[in-house]
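User: Can you predict the 3D structure for this chain?
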Amino acid sequence: MRGRLRDLGIEIGDLPTGTHNSITDVAGVRVGHATLIHDEPTVARTGVTMIVPRDGGIWTDFAHAGWFNFSGNGEMTGLPWIEESGLLGSPIGLTSTHQVGLVRDFLVKAAVETGHTDAFHLPVVAETWDGWLSDADSFPLTEVEARMAYTSAAAGPVAEGCVGGGTGMICHELKGGIGTSSRMVESRSGVFTVGVLVQANYGRRRDLRVDGFPLGRHLGFDVVPSAWDEPPNGGSIIVVAATDAPLLPIQCSRMARRITVGLARVGGYGHDSSGDIFLAFSTGNHLPVSKEPWTVDVLPHREMDDLFHAVADATEESILNALVAAETMSGQRGRTAHALPLDRMEELVALDPRQ
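Assistant: Here is the predicted structure, written as structure tokens:
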């Protein structure tokens, strides 16, 4: 276990975190992983991560949601209906590019198995490409892994780094993967939680920053080799934000757009071949299919500024948590993605004159 960013004495922003500093600090949000690693008959470094809102009740108690496409060379299913209705009605799956359909179809099956047969389902499943370390063309994932991630979803601490959908991912030419963080926001309307989870698989080394310090410029390839044979021209990141603040869909979209701020601070530019797609949902109102019309509370727009800060800071820290937690991993064709050297990072960040 390599720990988390705050274990190294580095804190992002000045808002307090939730109990676990994870997306599960938003009440009712669960996270589960299934990780698949084997070398025969093909090389697999892949998996599935599930974010399950409302303790699994999201199938019949919808949540307001919105999204933002920062760079569209990627996939997140279910977005046309979210755009049309502003409603999230399924768990959210994260996985490898070539296996989005498998995870999406499993979620439809899971809905039917649990008795939700009164309507069709449009689950949300997103991807980043793990085909550098894993033989993606062998389609190693099965329904077994999708089901495992779904049924194991739990509250509390969340495993990070080389787990679940993040197993084979690369970030800033280092080993990347899953990361999460949260923030508490106090407003005139109450105290609210914002939680973020990322699947980070993007970026160039030279652009990497840690709390504003240009760490990537000081981590030469003679110190830590690049995961790539040649400089990458893209990569992708999926970011999911949750909050218990009572937001309308347009407010969720506003929050999703601010995820870009956190990504930019770490060094994400939305390159041409990058799929940077962000989803935000709010559990602050209950929207049960069995009871209509709905009555909702709404946070005033003027009270959203701290939510914007919270989602940006939590995104930044989530990406860095993914890098800190991830361990060196070798995969197909002798390729290796090296872990961020924590001792060297501590030494360099300590030289930052702002400290």
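The radius of gyration is 19 Å. The longest strand covers residues 275-288.
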